[in-house]
């Protein structure tokens, strides 16, 4: 008996020792895992070796890329967290509803689970939903792919369903109660599709209002019962001005991809349009006075956000839900940077695309200009690769449906510009190729965000082709942020302002007088 007990204890001790040893090896392997892998191994960086220094003092692999002999050099930013860790950060939907004071409409809850297949909530969704539900003006600033659309859409639909009464069906036509503004047609279509799935078998009607045929709508307007209107800013502002749509019953205004809508190219039109909504009444303690709730969502925010919003709302009343990963490199996506001659990019692209298609990995190829996007599409199709093309210069009737073709799986390669980088839910994509490297870090963040999204936790990859001096300058800043673990610098989505500043600086350098009213 004692002998058997001794053997049992010895076996348990050995098992415990083996578990401890395995755990220690795992920790050691993670500890020695390279955060940055380089062709020149002297620039490798382990997970525990993050530097803490100013730009220009940290040795960079890309520092020598300005030299012609650096071609064919490369480095890789490896994931610092796994898919399992991301899943562990999520919260069960049923557990969240049981522990919170949120009471979802039964049909909305059923649609959420059955139509969208949502069983878990991300951290951002769990933080934002109660604030939006309590009618606070809310800014949701979080990394791409973390579910910001549902974070605002779920609570405002829930409130609208609960407050709905049959008499409201007699309201004027084209008089929405929820207005969602987006900068792009594809994003507006996508949000409308999500809203329609959530509103299935309810009395709420969803309408998408896209640009491109506004004159036709003004000449031959369509009138219907509209509860949720998802629209591009240009289209809705014209149709409201002409009296085809009425905004006096709107109780929730959402700026999706707010960074783009707050860009200088939109600001004047946006602030003029938003002044019609009584945002300030939301915080008057009188049940009879009804105001409009303002919601903003984006993965990057311009530095002058508060200054712009101050024109239409008291910014002190806005609650903020900000992710700790905001303006950081995506920690769960592998990112490769390849230094090459510009002439070598097509051949390298074709090689990558064929390799991905052999593995059935859908990919998106980004270019900086529509002409380059057209070239990539023509080049790949002529090389025997079926490739879709999507850019802002295409006619509306041609552009409609291109993104849905990629999402349905009709084609596994999409060539696009930044029109395809903002907010689109590309859960099919596994690989992003920057044929042209973006010249603004905010664009790089949005492009990378097309992969590694919630619902697409498989291993994902970003491949960057680096050729010009300006591209190398941006890469060096990204590499420095990766080595120090700090924020990405100059994440300012106000692209028009950035371009104007550069033009003014170039004029000064050339000795050309800068007009006083245009100086920055």
Q: Please give the domain count.
A: 2
What is the fold-level CATH name, i.e. the topology of the largest domain? Rossmann fold
Number of helices: 19
Low-confidence stretches: 23-31, 493-503, 515-520
What is the molecular shape?
globular
What proportion of the residues is helical, as a percent range? 25-40%
Proportion in β-strands: 5-15%
Q: Major sheet, described briefly?
A: 9 strands, mixed
Mean pLDDT: 83
Strand order of the largest sheet: 2-1-3-13-18-17-14-16-15
Please name the CATH architecture of the largest domain: 3-Layer(aba) Sandwich
The first-to-last residue Cα distance is: 89 Å
CATH class of the largest domain: Alpha Beta
Structural class: alpha/beta
Radius of gyration: 26 Å
Write down how many β-strands occur, each being a DSSP E stretch of 2 or more residues: 18
- CATH H-level homologous superfamily name of the largest domain: P-loop containing nucleotide triphosphate hydrolases
EC number: 3.6.4.13
Motif (Q motif): 97-126
Domain Helicase C-terminal: 352-499
Domain Helicase ATP-binding: 99-412, 129-319
Describe what you observe in this structure:
The protein is an alpha/beta fold and 520 residues long. 39% of the residues lie in helices and 15% in strands. The protein has two domains: 34-84 and 331-501, Rossmann fold (3-Layer(aba) Sandwich), CATH 3.40.50; 89-322, P-loop containing nucleotide triphosphate hydrolases (Rossmann fold), CATH 3.40.50.300. The chain contains 19 helices and 18 strands. The protein has a nine-stranded mixed sheet with strand order 2-1-3-13-18-17-14-16-15, with helices on both faces. Strands 8-9-7-10-11-6-12 form a seven-stranded parallel sheet. Strands 4-5 form a two-stranded antiparallel sheet. Strand 1 and strand 2 form a beta hairpin. Residues 23-31, 493-503 and 515-520 have low confidence and may be disordered. It holds the Pfam family Helicase_C. Keywords: ATP-binding, Helicase, Hydrolase, Nucleotide-binding.
């Amino acid at each position: 008996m004692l002998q058997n007990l001794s053997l049992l204890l010895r076996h348990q001790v050995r098992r415990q020792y083996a578990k401890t040893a395995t755990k220690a090896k795992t920790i050691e392997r993670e500890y020695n895992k390279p955060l940055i892998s380089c062709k020149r191994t002297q620039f490798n960086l382990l997970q525990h070796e993050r530097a803490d220094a100013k730009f220009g003092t940290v040795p960079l692999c890309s520092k020598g890329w300005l030299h012609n002999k650096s071609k064919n050099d490369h480095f890789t930013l490896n994931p610092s967290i796994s898919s399992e860790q991301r899943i562990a950060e999520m919260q069960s939907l049923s557990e969240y509803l049981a522990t919170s004071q949120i009471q979802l409409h039964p049909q909305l809850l059923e649609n959420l689970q059955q139509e969208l297949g949502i069983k878990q909530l991300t951290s951002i969704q769990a933080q934002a939903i109660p604030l939006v539900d309590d009618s606070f003006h809310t800014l949701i600033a979080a990394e791409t792919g973390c579910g910001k659309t549902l974070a605002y859409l779920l609570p405002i639909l829930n409130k609208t369903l609960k407050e709905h009464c049959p008499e409201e069906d007699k309201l004027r036509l084209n008089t929405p109660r929820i207005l969602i503004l987006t900068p792009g047609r594809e994003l507006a279509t996508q949000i409308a599709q999500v809203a329609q799935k959530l509103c299935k078998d309810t009395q709420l009607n969803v309408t998408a209002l896209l640009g491109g045929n506004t004159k036709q709508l003004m000449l031959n307007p369509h009138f219907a019962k509209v509860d949720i209107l998802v629209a591009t800013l240009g289209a809705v502002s014209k149709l409201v001005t002409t009296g085809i749509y009425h905004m006096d019953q709107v109780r929730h205004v959402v700026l999706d991809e707010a960074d783009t809508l707050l860009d200088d190219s939109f600001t004047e039109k946006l602030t003029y349009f938003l002044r019609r909504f009584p945002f300030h009444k939301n915080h008057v303690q009188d049940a009879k006075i009804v105001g409009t709730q303002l919601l903003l969502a984006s993965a990057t925010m311009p530095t002058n956000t508060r200054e712009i919003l101050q024109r239409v709302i008291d910014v002190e009343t806005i609650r903020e839900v900000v992710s700790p990963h905001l303006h950081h490199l995506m920690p769960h996506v592998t990112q490769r940077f390849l230094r090459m001659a510009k002439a070598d990019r097509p051949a390298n692209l074709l090689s990558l695309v064929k390799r991905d298609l052999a593995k059935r990995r859908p990919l998106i190829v980004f270019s900086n200009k529509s002409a380059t996007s057209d070239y990539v599409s023509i080049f790949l199709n002529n090389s025997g690769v079926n490739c879709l093309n999507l850019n802002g210069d295409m006619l509306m009737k041609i552009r409609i449906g291109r993104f849905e073709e990629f999402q349905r799986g009709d084609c596994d390669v999409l060539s696009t510009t930044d029109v395809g980088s903002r907010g689109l839910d590309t859960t099919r994509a596994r690989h992003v190729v920057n044929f042209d490297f973006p010249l603004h870090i905010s664009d790089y963040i949005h492009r990378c965000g097309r992969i590694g999204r919630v619902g697409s936790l498989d291993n994902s990859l970003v491949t960057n082709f680096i050729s010009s001096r300006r591209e190398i300058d941006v890469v060096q800043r990204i590499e420095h942020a990766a080595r120090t673990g700090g924020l990405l610098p100059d994440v300012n989505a106000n692209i028009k302002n950035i371009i104007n500043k550069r033009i003014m600086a170039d004029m000064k350098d050339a000795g050309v007088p800068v007009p006083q009213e245009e100086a920055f």
